[in-house]
Write a structure and sequence with these properties.
This protein is of the alpha+beta class. 58% of the residues lie in helices and 11% in strands.
């Protein structure tokens, strides 16, 4: 699964930028080939993820000066947007998980109270049946 973000400036040599489920951010050229963004490869290496940036480039599109300049400027901006979106998703997930844990604790406490009430009522019925 990958997430797409449209580039704001049309002067980049790729047609879209995506984030792979592995975390790698790639610029997709007009042939459909993904070229790892320099910022993404660097970020992954800094975080201990092995990423060699190897890809099936057709014709060396990412080796042109135009591509390298765009990747060094716009590529970093796009990569940062994707990374911040991922961080935001993780934060929202953690908040939802915390809320669900709190709800579970409340349900457990309510269940315990109901069980105690049921046991108390059962004990009363047993006492009445013994006295009758």
């Amino acid at each position: 699964m990958s997430e797409e973000i449209k580039t704001e400036k049309p002067n980049v040599p790729w047609i879209q930028t995506i984030r792979r489920s592995s975390g790698l951010i790639e610029h997709i050229d007009s042939n459909g080939c993904g070229h790892p963004a320099a910022a993404s490869v660097h970020w992954m290496e800094l975080n201990g993820v092995e990423c060699m940036g190897i890809h099936g480039c057709l014709g060396g599109a990412c080796q042109t000066l135009e591509w390298k300049l765009a990747d060094a400027t716009e590529g970093y901006k796009i990569a940062n947007k994707l990374l911040f979106a991922l961080i935001k998703e993780k934060k929202a997930f953690k908040e939802e998980l915390k809320s669900l844990k709190e709800e579970l604790q409340t349900l457990k406490a309510d269940n315990l109270k109901l069980s105690q009430m049921a046991m108390s009522g059962l004990k009363k019925k047993v006492k009445k049946s013994k006295t009758v």
